[in-house]
Amino acid sequence: VTRVHACRSKDRSPLVQNTCQYLQEHLSETLNVPLLAKQMGYSVSYLARTFRQQTGMTLHEYQRTKRMEQAMAALRAGDEPVQSICHRLGFGSHSYFTEQFRKHTGMTPNDYRRHNGQN
């Protein structure tokens, strides 16, 4: 329900709402913009332009942000190994995940877990 609500907004067209929902449901997959555009029934340029205008992010930025939100929630919620979270969310390697996580949060996944995990 939260995911659907986050994607639905009076400011967003059905195209962008459906794209957000699709991306949320396929976080672990590598984003293939031409395939996504075809699936949505629009050209790559129209989808990319419309999505950016309405969300303020590119499709890749949106997917990366949602992946990081999922990773942060998993790190706060329990003791699932970082390696497992990394692979579940579709990151190619642990080191790339750690690099992207550090860019997003300013700390490594393990540091994040220590500072924000359940006590």
Strand content: under 5%
Number of DSSP E strands? 0
What distance separates the N and C termini?
Answer: 27 Å
Radius of gyration: 15 Å
Number of helices: 8
Outline the secondary-structure elements.
Blueprint: H1 2-7, H2 14-25, H3 33-40, H4 44-55, H5 59-77, H6 82-88, H7 94-105, H8 109-116
Helix pairs in contact: 3-4, 5-8
Describe the structure.
By secondary structure, this protein is mainly alpha-helical. 71% of the residues lie in helices and 0% in strands. The chain contains eight helices and no strands. It is elongated.
Describe this structure in a few short sentences.
The protein contains eight helices and no strands. It has helices spanning 2-7, 14-25, 33-40, 44-55, 59-77, 82-88, 94-105, 109-116. The radius of gyration is 15 Å and the shape is elongated.
Key attributes of the depicted protein:
0% strand, 8 helices, mainly alpha, elongated, single chain, 119 residues, 71% helix
